[in-house]
Design goal:
Distance between the termini: 66 Å
Number of strands: 11
Domain Sieve element occlusion C-terminal: 484-638
Radius of gyration: 35 Å
Protein name: Protein SIEVE ELEMENT OCCLUSION B-like
Number of helices: 28
Domain Sieve element occlusion N-terminal: 32-300
Strand content: 5-15%
Structural class: alpha/beta
Strand order of the largest sheet: 2-1-5-4-3
Shape: elongated
Largest sheet: 5 strands, mixed
């Protein structure tokens, strides 16, 4: 009993006042940034099933600490508190509690003992933190923070609740004296008032840090792709240290050497967590907007609704600028018009611009009620960028966005199809019927469509000369190295091979991703080889992280995953002697070797970009005669291409 009373009175087990030396605070502050120690604590995490209801526990903690800090504020700033009470704004608002919720009392009590008793007895911050993290190992990260903060809330709230009792309540008065409350509420030392003001602010900041993590856990459930935007484990580690700092300062009942040191550190951490949480909310809003616009783009009611989605109409009801008249205009002016969207940066190529000018000057273009709207995609900002935009805008007789600030960045992400890049003037008047017709023209080669001189200078000459052409791309540098080392050996041995690494060729991927929607939106027959070859190339990169295409001129010899192609390349020394034997050419031998190493997978997948607006009901597998199952798949590529 004497030990308990000693702690209640702010004394150690010998009856002397607790003293917290500067070294203890120094070690505590150093723990915030000790990444090695933090990793050790994070590794204790071993969550079990049936965790605590986060929202219910947070409401209890929030009510307790907000109510308590209001009492402290009335003591630290009695004049301000009196003024707020007169104006009716001094009473804290409480969150509704869930009926029947049972908090983890055993864990809260044990952690409370660690915070109030053992921390000051041992004076070893790390030993206390090790004990806390092991005690909390079975709980989720957010619940670790909440249970620790609950422990502080229990004894902190219980202590200050006695400050509100009536003088006639002798039991409460006796308990208040035992807890040293009169010495706090009626101190002779003004510095002690300042200490509790600092402590109250630090507790409120720690509560706000915890709320960021609670809200993040709740808000990120429907956007799993953003679930790593906040390092919750690191945040909880710092929250627990912050709670320990608050507990030590409160239990010691003394002024720190520098009472603002911990507050400054906790404020810095709070600002960092809050900034990450605000970034997360912004990303989540973008994802929700993306999903909304994607539904709209796939099934628009009219072109006005769709084009309005490209701009922040609320900021300016006239977002368009008509170059020929030098006037602003509403999107509604495009109603019942056939609108061609031009999506580009400020480096609009002369090739694209010349096609546009030719299209725009055609009499048929205006007779058929066609309009062009330029929507620039610009990452930079500043006066120089604005000047470049305005100069280019004045050279265009068609519509453009009036101001760069009006462009809905989320909407731009959805705009993937650009038939001009694929077909040029042949695509006019840019309707589904025309797209269907041109894709059905005889002699269309998907390889020639992708491998243009615009992307690979003079490649058309190589195609006409029927040279061997090797296109490849892979995410792993090791794979690229293996491919290129093998190709070098082949070329050194006299085989004429033109090789292109398209891994980082944005033009190539833009063209591929333009061809796919253009083809798929014609309700293409996916049984035909042209469509399956395009999908195969895209899938090999998306699924296996790399692909390779070998052609002789425009004739495709191999279009497969790098997994199988690299096996053939690595075995080059064993099969090169077979070339030109019994009339077998290089490509024939290459194909034979591939057939030997290729293993038919148990399941095969085709990846279809989600921006195409059309998903086929059935697809025939190109290797066997069966039809493929249609499933929906969600994936995260962790920032890969």
């Amino acid at each position: 009993m004497s030990t308990i009373l000693a702690h209640l009175l702010g004394m150690d087990h010998k009856g002397k006042p607790h003293q917290v030396d500067q070294s203890m605070w120094t070690n505590l502050l150093a723990s915030f940034d000790d990444e090695k120690f933090m990793k050790e604590m994070v590794n204790t995490h071993a969550p079990e099933e049936g965790d605590v209801d986060v929202q219910s526990l947070f409401h209890l903690v929030d009510n307790t600490l907000h109510g308590t800090t209001a009492i402290v504020d009335s003591i630290v700033n009695p004049t301000l508190s009196s003024l707020q009470g007169t104006q009716g704004s001094g009473r804290p608002s409480f969150k509704p509690l869930k009926e029947g919720f049972n908090p983890p009392l055993a864990a809260i009590n044990e952690v409370g003992c660690q915070l109030t008793c053992k921390a000051l007895d041992t004076k070893n911050v790390r030993q206390t933190l090790v004990s806390l993290f092991h005690e909390l190992s079975s709980y989720s990260w957010v619940n670790k923070a909440l249970i620790t903060l609950s422990s502080l809330a229990v004894f902190y709230g219980d202590f200050w609740l006695l400050a509100r009792v009536e003088p006639s309540d002798k039991l409460a008065e006796s308990m208040a004296i035992l807890k040293g409350l009169p010495a706090i509420t009626k101190p002779t030392d003004p510095q002690k008032i300042q200490v509790f003001g600092v402590l109250s602010e630090m507790i409120e900041t720690t509560l706000n840090m915890t709320q960021c993590n609670v809200d993040f856990e709740h808000d990120s459930k429907d956007v799993p792709e953003l679930s790593t935007m906040i390092d919750v484990a690191s945040s909880v580690y710092q929250i627990i240290i912050s709670v320990l700092a608050c507990s030590i300062q409160f239990t010691s009942l003394i002024s720190m050497v520098d009472e603002f040191a911990c507050l400054r550190k906790v404020n810095m951490i709070h600002h960092s967590i809050k900034r990450h949480y605000e970034d997360f909310l912004q990303k989540k809003r973008e994802i929700k907007e993306y999903q909304r616009l994607q539904r709209l783009f796939n099934a628009p009611t009219d072109n006005v609704e769709l084009i309005n989605a490209l701009f922040y109409i609320k900021d300016d009801p006239q977002p368009l600028f008509l170059g020929s008249k030098k006037t602003k205009d509403k999107v509604e002016s495009l109603w019942r018009k056939n609108v061609l969207l031009l999506i580009s940066d400020l480096k609009l190529t002369s090739h694209d611009l010349s096609i546009l000018v030719k299209i725009y000057n055609e009499r048929k273009f205006h007779e058929e009620r066609y309009k062009i709207v330029w929507v620039p995609i610009i990452e930079q900002d500043g006066e120089e960028v604005i000047e470049q935009f305005q100069n280019l805008q004045l050279q265009m007789p068609w519509y453009s966005v009036h101001s760069l600030k009006l462009i809905n960045r989320v909407a731009i992400r959805i705009i993937k199809e650009n038939m001009i890049r694929v077909w040029g003037w042949d695509a006019f008047p840019f309707t589904g019927a025309v797209a269907t017709d041109i894709w059905k023209r005889p002699g269309i080669s998907w390889f020639e469509l992708l491998a243009t001189d615009f992307i690979f200078p003079k490649i058309q000459e190589d195609i006409k000369a029927e040279k061997y052409i090797f296109l490849y791309g892979a995410e792993e540098p090791k794979v690229i190295q293996e491919i290129e080392e093998s190709l070098k050996k082949m070329i050194d041995d006299g085989f004429s091979i033109i090789a292109f690494n398209v891994t980082k060729s944005q033009l190539f991927w833009t063209r591929l991703e333009s061809c796919m929607p253009s083809k798929l939106q014609t309700r293409a027959d996916l049984h035909e080889s042209l469509m399956q070859d395009i999908l195969r190339l895209y899938t090999n990169f998306k699924k296996d992280g790399g692909f390779a295409v070998l052609t002789k001129g425009s004739r495709v010899v191999i279009n497969e995953s790098h997994v199988h192609i690299t096996r053939v390349l690595m075995q080059y020394e064993t099969w090169k002697k077979l070339v030109n034997v019994n009339g077998k050419t290089f490509d024939m031998v290459f194909r034979e070797q591939f057939d030997r190493v290729y293993i038919l997978p148990r399941c095969h997948h085709f990846y279809i970009p989600n921006m195409v607006g059309y998903i086929p009901d059935e697809v025939k597998f190109p290797v066997c005669p069966r039809m493929m199952n249609n499933i929906v798949k969600f994936e995260c590529c962790h920032g890969a291409h």
